[in-house]
């Protein structure tokens, strides 16, 4: 049974449905379903061990995020299927995030503060430096075309990890792309918890900054507003180290996807784009030590 037919055959529908494909999914296939005057988003996807995507974790995070008031309701779940209430709104762009940064940050802070209070069962940790080391093993074993550069990237990762230092833990989203934020006209929603896990808040702040091309002033404001204190040189350096690590992780995520993904997407171009962004951000980090 193909994925569309599988979605149409789910037992929760009141009558016949015609699932319509939704764009944007790279780790799953998404459908929009109308049934009984309501609309639903159906996410279809199995575990992706080489990316650390485990669907039991996504389900637990999605339920806790709804209870915390930051994400839509989980309507139905079974192995490989997650059905969510549809949010009638507009997906943000990086420009929207930059323009409405205060409101985005408040949603992120709420997620960090509240989701862990509702989380049930085992929970994953998303530590970017472990992810980088694990990706390096996968790339080396797979004979990736840039495997000769792995020692340099891992040495840089060790330097960045030391610069980040001890961290506090919050429950992070860990994939703060603009496309994972929806504005329904009255409030913002945060969706897609594939990579949800306990982490330093600096990772989400770094991802928010890098994915949405915040300038230096906006990055400083982000840190000051989140931590509610003036930004010291030490905090700025730690935050930049995590931002650099987030970009290396995005580049290596794309490299692993070059080896394993089956979707029609130009991962090689995405790898090159994120390596260039990583190298620019690393140069900024290095200048902080001069």
TrEMBL record:
GO MF terms held by the record: kinase activity
Signal peptide per UniProt: none
Domain Aminoglycoside phosphotransferase residues, every copy: 20-234
Top-rank lineage group of the source organism: Bacteria
Gene3D superfamilies documented for this protein: 3.90.1200.10, Phosphorylase Kinase, domain 1
Pfam entry (one): APH
Keywords: Kinase, Transferase
Name this protein carries in UniProt: Choline kinase family protein
């Amino acid at each position: 049974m193909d994925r569309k037919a599988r979605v149409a055959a789910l037992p929760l529908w009141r009558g016949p449905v015609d699932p319509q494909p939704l764009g944007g999914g790279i780790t799953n296939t998404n459908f929009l379903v109308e049934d009984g005057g309501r609309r639903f988003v159906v996410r279809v996807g199995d575990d992706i061990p080489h990316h650390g995507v485990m669907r039991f974790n996504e389900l637990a995070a999605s339920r806790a995020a709804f209870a915390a008031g930051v994400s839509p309701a989980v309507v139905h779940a079974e192995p490989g299927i997650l059905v969510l209430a549809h949010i009638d709104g507009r997906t943000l762009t990086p420009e929207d995030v930059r323009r409405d940064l205060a409101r985005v940050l408040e949603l992120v802070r709420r997620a960090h503060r509240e989701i862990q209070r509702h989380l049930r069962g085992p929970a994953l940790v998303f530590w970017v430096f472990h992810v980088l080391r694990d990706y390096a093993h996968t790339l080396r074993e797979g004979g990736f075309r840039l495997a000769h550069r792995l020692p340099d990237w891992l040495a840089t990762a060790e330097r960045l990890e030391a610069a980040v230092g001890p961290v506090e833990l919050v429950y992070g989203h860990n994939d703060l792309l603009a496309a994972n934020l929806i504005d329904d006209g009255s409030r913002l929603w945060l969706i897609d918890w594939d990579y949800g896990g306990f982490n330093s808040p600096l990772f989400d702040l770094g991802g928010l900054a890098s994915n949405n091309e915040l300038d230096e002033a906006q990055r400083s404001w982000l840190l000051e507003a989140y931590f509610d204190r003036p930004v010291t040189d030490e905090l700025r350096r730690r935050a930049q180290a995590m931002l650099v690590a987030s970009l290396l992780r995005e580049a290596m995520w794309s490299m692993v996807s070059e080896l394993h993904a089956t979707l029609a997407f130009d991962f090689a171009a995405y790898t090159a784009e994120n390596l260039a962004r990583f190298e620019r951000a690393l140069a900024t980090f290095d200048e902080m030590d001069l």
